Amino acid sequence: MARPAALLAALGALALARGAKAFSPAARSLCASAAARATSSSATALRSASDPHLEIRPRAPTDALTSPTLLQKLRLRIGLGKDLRERVVHKYFHGVDTQNIPQIVECFSEEGATIRDICCSLANRDVPYEAVGKEVTPEFLGERCREFLAAHPDCKVMFRYAPTCGRGRNNNWVHAHWYEEGRWSGPSEGIEPDGSPLTVQGQTRFWVDDDLKIKEIVITRTFSRWEEMLLKSSR
Q: pTM of the full predicted structure?
């Protein structure tokens, strides 16, 4: 069965083609509007298909990301397969979006990862880049995500610019411009919610190795009200 929007779009095109004599003014207006929306939606879909970096939602992971084949590893080592590195970062954001903590943990190297949160503390001012960061376990990162999602159970991840791997053979960095929407509606870490909107955004770089695991994160971002309260309570 034809979808209502598609049917209206078809009727709109037919009405416009035939001079719309058989349609009332109200019907002509409705059909023309539906046709315009359908055209706009199709154009957006085509742009996303031709340039995946214009996608606004995280992609679901595939089995290839869990255990890359020998051929895939070879392609990664000679500078190809950059889309696979991008899919790892999609997998991470998809885990946040679906509150799948094991999936988040799986994105990181078992040996741990270096996280550099540039905006995490005023103490980071005038500190060398190499000194801003710490080694953490995948489980630690998963737990931090769990705490954040407990405070914002309706959190949704969106992209202003989807995960994109840098060009060149030795460039393993994937960057993304993301934002999150929702509301602080759940208690977490002993802090009660105040119902304030979640309007966090940031730009993050992920270093993804040839085993398709994240080894380093560099974050520049804003903070939610809950995070601000958590930082104050930890001082």
A: 0.75
